[in-house]
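Subject: sequence -> structure tokens, single chain

Hey, anyone have a minute? Need the predicted structure for the following. Not urgent.
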Amino acid sequence: MYKENSFYVKLQNLAGLDLRDNRGKIHNLAFVLLGLSIALLRKRDGNLSSLHRSMENKHQELCTFLGLSDSTEVISRSYLPVCLKRVSLLHFERLLFENYGIELSDEQKRWFAGDGKELRGSIEKGKKRGEAIVQLVDQENRQVLGQSYYNGEKESEKPCLRNLLTTSLASGQKISLDALHLCPATCELINEAGGSFLIGLKNNQAVLLEDMKFHSQNSKPIFQSKQWEKGHGRIEHREYELYDISDEYFDPRWEKVNFRSLIKVERTRIDTKTEEENKETSFYISNENAKIGDELFKAIRNHWQVEVNNNIRDTTFQEDRLKTKEKPVSKVLAGLRTLSLALLNILKPKNMVAQLEKFQDDFQLLLNFLRQTNFL
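Reply:
Had a minute. Here:
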């Protein structure tokens, strides 16, 4: 039997989760979401039919484990997407982050990387864009603080991320972002909330970029660092330079942004097999005090953790392979993948694929794990 205060019980208690299909059968949506979560943890993602087969194949064992009646039926494959369309994503994800989220502290702020990822399986024939998920990911452990969605055909990632910063209460934390988000509205939101931003500076802000390049060419950095790293078939050398720009003049539209630091990074990558050398120079801008150079350098390096998180969703869970015309289904399954990753984060496996394969081979091991994490 499941625990009285488990995530599954809380999910059952959400309003409107008992649904009647067109044959009059009643499906408990909490049980349906549980079955899908288990299927994801058994490495069955990438195809809705494959997920459903896992639900069918393990239905009896799951009912026995939970002490459910023998009359409990598995939902049909044809009705599964219809059922998922009725999930209140707002309530489901609120419950998810309340139970497996991050507790924020104003005293000890943390670095979160923000980024968007297209759910490629949601792109309709003849269109170039589909639904996209935007997440805030802890730079240290890749735990997701919050997420939101937008439609790439009609909407923009920038307002979606600003809304996420507000609803997740993260605007007062430390946020690293791609150059797309370097705009007064986003920077002001974070700065006025007492937070810190670290954002890439590229040609989308061409005038600002040229001004900062000029500054780096005609000023001395107040802090420098060199780092070497070898791995993934290459050697990478990084040179960091930090400049204090707190006294520089900026266009009035940046008045409430409070730029204070400019970071220049020169990267040299050498392929260990071909010895081919590639060089690039990047710039980043921040409202953080220029005295914390090492922290800013580390935040630039760790921003890629959000890309690692996206890669896990694509390669380990095969998120982009699952095609559906129903946008709500894409979003619900994206939320369930976030839940699965949050559960795996508790376990901290050395090899995530190997752990999912263990769960695939040993169903009792998976059920025991879900009970230990207070999911069941």
